[in-house]
């Protein structure tokens, strides 16, 4: 009888831990400070250029971030593209996602979003 009681108590304790105390996996990063960056000019193909201003949405757990890596990534992604591609809204959103993925890699998860604050082609 004592063994059955201990067994029932152990099952109840395990079920309680599973439903109430079990860790719920990695939590989604929370938005922190928005870090504006100075606008840069990027050379496009055909003698055109893009003036690009950005702001980085950092996470609350972000360490001190330096915008130089974001600017370098933007230059690498946008340089040499045709002005028609850069001005196409669908292509622009694809380029933003590509930039976000590159910044995820470079900043090790400290940057969760990129906002274009200036986007002018000539």
Could you describe the 3D structure shown?
With 122 residues, this protein is an alpha+beta fold. It is built from 4 helices and 4 strands, in the order αβββαααβ. A hairpin with a 5-residue loop joins strand 2 and strand 3. Helix 2 crosses helix 4. It is elongated, with a radius of gyration of 24 Å. Its main location: membrane.
Structure characteristics:
single chain, 122 residues, alpha+beta, Tetrahydropterin Synthase, Chain A, four-stranded antiparallel β-sheet, 4 helices, elongated, cell projection, flagellar rotation, transmembrane helix, transmembrane
Q: What would you say about this model in short?
A:
With 122 residues, the protein is α+β, with helices and mostly antiparallel strands.
Count of separate structural domains = 1
- The CATH architecture is 2-Layer Sandwich
Q: What is the CATH homologous superfamily assignment?
A: Band 7 domain
Uncertain segments are none
Structural class: alpha+beta
Helix and strand sequence: HEEEHHHE
The proportion of strand residues reads 25-35%
User: What integer is the average pLDDT?
Assistant: 87
Number of strands: 4
CATH class: Alpha Beta
The CATH topology is Tetrahydropterin Synthase, Chain A
Q: Largest sheet, if any?
A: 4 strands, antiparallel
From the alpha-carbon coordinates, what is the Rg to the nearest angstrom?
24 Å
Indicate the overall shape. elongated
- Cα(first) to Cα(last) distance is 86 Å
Q: Note the quaternary state here.
A: single chain
> Share of helix among residues?
40-55%
Number of helices: 4
């Amino acid at each position: 009888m004592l063994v059955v009681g201990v067994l029932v108590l152990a099952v109840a304790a395990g079920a309680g831990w599973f439903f109430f105390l079990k860790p719920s996996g990695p939590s989604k990063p929370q938005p922190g400070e928005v870090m504006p960056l100075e606008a840069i000019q990027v050379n496009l193909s055909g003698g055109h250029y893009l003036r690009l201003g950005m702001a980085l949405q950092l996470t609350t757990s972000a360490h001190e971030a330096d915008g130089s890596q974001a600017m370098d990534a933007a230059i690498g992604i946008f340089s040499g593209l045709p002005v028609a591609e850069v001005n196409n809204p669908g292509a622009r959103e694809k380029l933003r996602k590509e930039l976000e993925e590159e910044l995820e890699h470079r900043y090790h998860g400290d940057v969760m979003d990129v906002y274009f604050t200036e986007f002018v082609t000539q």
